[in-house]
Amino acid sequence: MDILIQNLLNALQWGSFYALIALGYTLVYGVLLLINFAHGDIFMVGAYIAFFVATFFLGLFDFAPWMVLALTVPLTMLLTAGVGVTLERIAYRPLRRKGAHRLYVVITALMCGLILENGNLALLGASRKKFPELLDKVVYTWGNVSVTNLKLIVILAAITVFLILQFIVTRTRIGMAMRGISYDKFAIPLMGIPIDSVIVFTFVLGSGMAGLAGLLFAMSYPILEPYMGALIGWKAFIAAVVGGIGDIRGAFLGGFLLGFIEVGVVAMFPSTYRDLFAFSILLMILWIKPTGIFGVAKTTKI
Amino acid sequence: GCSKEEEKIKIGFNIPLTGDIPKVGEASKNAAQMLLADINAQGGLEVGGKKIPLEFIYEDNESKAESAVNAALKLIEQDGVVALIGPNSSKQAVPAGGTCNDNRTPMVSPWSTNPDTTKNRPWVFRAAFLDPFQGPVAVNFATKQFKATTAAVLFDVSNDYSKGLAEIFKEVFEKKNGADSVVAFVSHGTKDQDFSAQLTKIINSKPDFIFVPDNYNQVALIVRQARDLGWKGPFMGSDAWGSAELMKLCGDDCKGQFFSTHYAAAGAKGATKEFIDRYEAKYGETPDDVAALTWDATRLVLQAIQDSGSYNSDVKKERKAIRDALSSIKEFAGITGSMKFDSQGDPIKCAVVVRIDETGNFVFAESICP
Amino acid sequence: MQKYSFNIGLWALAAVVVALSQFGALDLYIQSVIMFIGINIILSSSLNVVNGYMGEFSCGHAGFMCVGAYVSSVLSVLFFAQDKIFGAPLLPPELAPLGFPIIVLFSGLVAAVTGLIVAIPSFKTRGDYLAIITIAANYMVISAIENMASVGGPRGFMGMKRVVNAMTDVVDIPWMMIWVILGTFMSVWMIRRFVSSTYGKGIMSICQDEVAAEIMSVNTNKMKMAAFMLSSGLAGIAGALFAHVLGYVNPQSFNIMKSTECLVMVYLGGMASLGGSVISAIFFTVMLELLRFIIPAIDTALHFVNILPDSYHLSQVWKWVLIPLTLILLMQFRPEGIMGNKELSDLFPRLKKFYKFK
Amino acid sequence: MNTLLEVKDLRVKYGNIEALHGVSFNVNEGEIVTLIGANGAGKTTTLLSISRLPPPEAPKVIEGDITWKGNSILDMPPHKVISDLHLALVPEGRHIFGNLTVEENLKIATYARKDSIKDIHGDYDRVFTLFPRLAERKKQRSESLSGGEQQMLAVGRAIMSKCNFIMLDEPSMGLAPLLMYDMFRTLKQLNKEGLSILLIEQNAHLALKFAHRGYVLDTGEIVASGSSADLMDNPEVKKAYLGG
Amino acid sequence: MSLLSIDGLTQRFGGLQAVSDFNIELEEGSLTGLIGPNGAGKTTIFNLISGFYQPTEGIIKLDGTPTRGLKPHQVTALGVARTFQNIRLWHDMTVMDNIRIAQHYRLGYDFFDAIMRSKNYYRREKEIERISTELLEFMDLRQYAEELPTNLPYGLQRRVEIARAMSIQPKLLLLDEPAAGLNSSDVEGLIKLIRWIHNEFDITILMIEHQMKVVMSLCSWIKCIDFGATIAEGTPEDIQSSETVIKAYLGDDSI
Ligand SMILES: Nc1ncnc2c1ncn2[C@@H]1O[C@H](COP(=O)(O)OP(=O)(O)OP(=O)(O)O)[C@@H](O)[C@H]1O
Ligand SMILES: Nc1ncnc2c1ncn2[C@@H]1O[C@H](COP(=O)(O)OP(=O)(O)OP(=O)(O)O)[C@@H](O)[C@H]1O
Ligand SMILES: [Mg+2]
Ligand SMILES: [Mg+2]
């Protein structure tokens, strides 16, 4: 029983990260049908930004860690959003303007990701960074179940972000515009909607969330290295698709699902088979629901 | 006028500057740079009474097998190096070793632990000891130190070093403590960051200690997460822990743990201490085992060049001379301990077990020789 | 006669390359680069069948390559080489030059059958959903092999050099160079014939309007299967050649990074352009190697004009910054890839005189 | 009468192909003007140029001017054309947002409107009385609508945007006769309330019957113009566009 | 015997009944019109006939063979060709390729023939080439054979789409609003073309159209549906004067 609860908590935390990153994927995808393969690396950049911001404040003033944290959260989100928007401006937008096939933008995103990773490596060197402790760790223990305050914060953050995004996308006018763009970019300006602003807004949201995820991740797994975003990025993408890409609920659920599957497989089967089993399960889900859990099949009207 | 190009001894480095383990490449390169500067400052390597300057050429193998082969071929064919240092990890060292052996160029891998790297390859050598030796060291030490009868193992399935060592450890431990005394044998993937599921499984099987033959960066995460999950027992590690960064990343959580390795930085004496101090001064961090092993590997090659008595400007002949000299080195006093070479070109050397003390230094606990 | 001059030219070029390798005029490094170019051509052109001509987004090409590499390695070692796992060779090593191509083709076949795990879901789902099925397939193949201790697991598998040596023992010619060239020609030739037949053009109709294709009598499921199997089969052949050129395989050599390299080559060359795939494979491979020489040159140049501080040297790390940067710039100038969806003959109609591009 | 929109010597290009070679015409406040012409004459191109949509879908203006109440709008971004000038376009090929419901499609068209919720609701009613079918399909994802229903939605969106100038590109395409006539009657009614209309219609007969004035476009040039009655009597126009 | 017989056809989408208990018998060689208000279910009926949807209820028989369970390409192989309400040509392939690919079901060679370029391959390709050229010739499209459809004017695209359907050599041709988007003179041409095809190839045609001129001058029998069920049928004259049809569909043409 204890094991079950413990694993449940583990899965919730790990799934939270998948969910946070998958939300960013889905948001951008939902608007531009662009698989932003650089998203994992934007997340990595977010973690680094958080690192620099936090060490800056810690080093410069004699702030209490919690004050530093309070400053780091918004700054990180803002700066990371800046990175995302910059990519959009200099790499994706010109291609879009030229009417390139969307997969060329996807490949460009992939390349941007590589530049972020290796540029970081080239500039900062291969040494890993240790993220400073900004939160006094509290371990709550009941019987064999242990959980840290950080874990709870992470889970809470994922849920909050999900609710906010879900509200924006489904309830607001700009959210409606975002959904419209994915279907027909041509007609959006005809509705009086400034398309570029909406796209920039999307990148601000998506990358901001990646920044938040990066910060929380750095606090939970305080070792930063240039390639830290690659694998988790790919997996979060998979989670987003399994949930039904383009759908906020899908990304959220898909992230947790992947977290649960990975933790579950390790807990129940020989751990060496984790990837094999986890991906088989995901394939099975897609087999049953070919457009993901929340994905709606595009009805081809002929 | 007609200036003849200055004669130089070219040595190639086939190292992972990008890809999965850039830190390994960087450390290798740092150590090599330091050695290069040392020797060239004296006017070059003294061979047969003549000083010849050195030139080191660094090629990135991107941590990929095919790139390692291409890099090796480029160094051999285009740059005409007389010997190669690296690759470091076995994934690249095994195929690159084949290439060097086929092309009759001596190669010394600092770090590779896979027996295949050197097996039946007269041109390939290494500076690190093999898993089959390190496994028992860890078992014996842990059994004695922790009075352990049960153990758990957490390793990286996709990393042949980690997996190989884990398997040997399991075999030896169970031979000593009876079947099923390794109560949990759990794996993770190479770039994983969350180990809570694995650790939950391990903690629940209540082992006396956890053996973690993993790279230091993952060790830092594993140890921390284990503490978060309520584990209070000891860990035992392997040589891959031995990085300067371990303490920076792991902090207090790792203090008091033990691991087996090639050398202990703290409390080192003589040449080792000098190396460490200078490296620290130059790069601002304690050299890890890769740096030390690269240093030794390169010095081995230089030693061989000197042993051969004269430098031959015909590259092919010089390579042969180096190989012959390498294979006849009987004993070599490296900063990672003194080593002898067996018929395969693998070193026989002592392992040390190191304890991480309260100040975070790696202090010598015990030396175990084969 | 004139119509075949293009073909004849290619074969002549191949013969020259082989001859130069044989007599040592090309050093081993250049030879190895040429062989990797050949392998990359197979990879990119075969992926183009699915991603370009059929318009799907398959991201797990390396998985099929992996299958081909392992199947061929195990078989060739089993049959023609002494090995610590498989023991004595089943056949006399003198037969290696005959047996090897059969093994390569067979491993292609096995990879093609593996391709079914992607082809069958593609009946129901498309686009980005298919993308993750292929990624998952890639991971699963790697994970499966890592769990197979008999082929070395994460340690990798070797012994193929001995098979190549066995071939050299029979006749001393650059065997692998010959096989790679033959494999490349065969792949490009197969794809060319496939996509230029009315039968194969069925996949292009799926790309442009699947509904119309199905209603206009194209058996879309069958065509998808054919395309996926052709593509993964050729990837398997590329894998088999790769394994024997390297003499060593390791599951991590076929991870998602390798797949993305294939993707980059396809889109760089241009979707649905075979010529583009060939050109971009050459460009990509050569650029990767050239940067080994260019970066030190840039470093020297920058130091010469004193832009860089003395203590800082540009290292090879910058390679993987420069490559994507170049590709991004290239795509900004040619947002449809080097060749768009055109072939050489469309851009230079006069070439048609020399070769029938059908 | 005030001239609302004026197009002067407009030349536009798709890539390297010139689609309009100097087109000039104007629309006055409260007028209904129609552009007729064969397939490919450049009618759609003209409307897209006025809407200031960016390439690649829309053409690039290389010469000439488009003015709105005397001010050039060539530098205006497309969304401003709607939100500031209140100039709407019902594009050829409907371009509805298939992943949104019918209701959301109508709602998105009010994006630039700044008036009260109540006014907006009044317009919903107007659309739903004109096209009762849309009311029945309110919650349906619009991509599964029938061809004609989608066309209704496209026109409905233009009404929702509450513009005082609407450009319609073949609004009757795919509509059943009954509905087509209803739609034209409603548009006429809106026109009486002050709406100006620029109409493109394949059925020249119908278009001229509906409009006050017309222009005839042929391969990128205006070849005839005048009041509807004049054009209908013009023998050339009769022969080429009215089917004899 | 009738070529197409539909009995009790019903199609539901969720709660929506798009077609309800629809019946029709088409005699061989007839030219029938299908009209009805927007959203009446006309296109849905076409989709059901061509196998794109599986009917919720009802039986569709072609030449006596029930088509339930057949995939669209199998139905097409039985001799049912169609055009689409919105043109769906393969826009990046030449007109010639469009015509050739539509003959996929009777290519008569397989993958290996294509790769090995067997005798059979050349024989069949030649045959298809011949048929396609001939067809383009017939349809006055010969000079556009190597053009991309996107570069053709709308009227010609419609014609190419009909040619593509004809290359299937159908027994039954389904035309979905062939005159939509055509100007008056093109409509005249279209009427002539359809009439000519009907006579020349002696095939059965069922067409949906909103332009009364087209329907009235071509069809010998017209069926008017609303809410997926027949509300009136008869000759053009009957329909034009039917109160029900006027009320539900034609309306009055005063503007
Ligand atoms: N996106 C485009 N790229 C290139 N050429 C185009 C493009 N769109 C239209 N054209 C060309 O511009 C010319 C005018 O086209 P336009 O669509 O304006 O005609 P139209 O009068 O609206 O015809 P229709 O009655 O068919 O709608 C045509 O020759 C057409 O081929
Ligand atoms: N896939 C679908 N899912 C849900 N509803 C659908 C679907 N396809 C059609 N419908 C609905 O069924 C009804 C009939 O559609 P259909 O396309 O057959 O109409 P139609 O008679 O062809 O009309 P039009 O003349 O406008 O083309 C419409 O109301 C439409 O909304
Ligand atoms: Mg038009
Ligand atoms: Mg319809």
Automatic annotation (TrEMBL), chain A:
It comes from the Bacteria. Its main location: membrane. The keyword Nucleotide-binding does not apply. GO terms for cellular component: plasma membrane. It is found in: Cell membrane. It is a multi-pass membrane protein. GO terms for biological process: D-alanine transmembrane transport; L-alanine transport; L-isoleucine import across plasma membrane. GO terms for molecular function: L-isoleucine transmembrane transporter activity; L-leucine transmembrane transporter activity; L-phenylalanine transmembrane transporter activity; L-valine transmembrane transporter activity. Pfam families: BPD_transp_2 (PF02653). Keywords: Amino-acid transport, Cell inner membrane, Cell membrane, Membrane, Transmembrane, Transmembrane helix, Transport. The chain crosses the membrane at residues 17-35, 42-61, 67-91, 103-126, 146-169, 227-245, 252-270, 276-297. Belongs to the binding-protein-dependent transport system permease family. LivHM subfamily. This is Inner-membrane translocator. It comes from Maridesulfovibrio hydrothermalis AM13 = DSM 14728.
Automatic annotation (TrEMBL), chain C:
It is a multi-pass membrane protein. The keyword Transmembrane applies. Its main location: membrane. The chain crosses the membrane at residues 29-50, 62-82, 102-123, 130-153, 173-191, 226-246, 266-286. It is found in: Cell membrane. InterPro entries: ABC_transp_permease, LivM-like. Keywords: Cell membrane, Membrane, Transmembrane, Transmembrane helix. One of its GO terms (cellular component) is plasma membrane. GO terms for molecular function: branched-chain amino acid transmembrane transporter activity. This is Inner-membrane translocator. It comes from Maridesulfovibrio hydrothermalis AM13 = DSM 14728. The lineage of its organism: Bacteria, Pseudomonadati, Thermodesulfobacteriota, Desulfovibrionia, Desulfovibrionales.
From TrEMBL, chain D:
GO terms for molecular function: ATP binding; ATP hydrolysis activity; branched-chain amino acid transmembrane transporter activity. Belongs to the ABC transporter superfamily. Pfam families: ABC_tran. InterPro entries: AAA+_ATPase, ABC_transporter-like_ATP-bd, ABC_transporter-like_CS, BCAA_Transport_ATP-bd_LivF, P-loop_NTPase. The keyword Translocase does not apply. SMART domains: AAA. Residues 5-244 form the ABC transporter domain. It comes from Maridesulfovibrio hydrothermalis AM13 = DSM 14728. Keywords: Amino-acid transport, ATP-binding, Nucleotide-binding, Transport. GO terms for biological process: L-amino acid transport. This is Leucine/isoleucine/valine transporter subunit ATP-binding component of ABC superfamily.
UniProtKB/TrEMBL annotation, chain E:
Gene3D superfamilies: P-loop containing nucleotide triphosphate hydrolases. The keyword ATP-binding applies. Keywords: ATP-binding, Nucleotide-binding, Transport. One of its GO terms (biological process) is L-alanine transport. Coiled coil: none annotated. It holds the Pfam family BCA_ABC_TP_C. One of its GO terms (molecular function) is ATP binding. GO terms for cellular component: plasma membrane. Signal peptide: none annotated. It comes from the Bacteria. The keyword Nucleotide-binding applies. PROSITE patterns: ABC_TRANSPORTER_2. Residues 4-252 form the ABC transporter domain. This is Leucine/isoleucine/valine transporter subunit ATP-binding component of ABC superfamily. It comes from Maridesulfovibrio hydrothermalis AM13 = DSM 14728. The lineage of its organism: Bacteria, Pseudomonadati, Thermodesulfobacteriota, Desulfovibrionia, Desulfovibrionales.
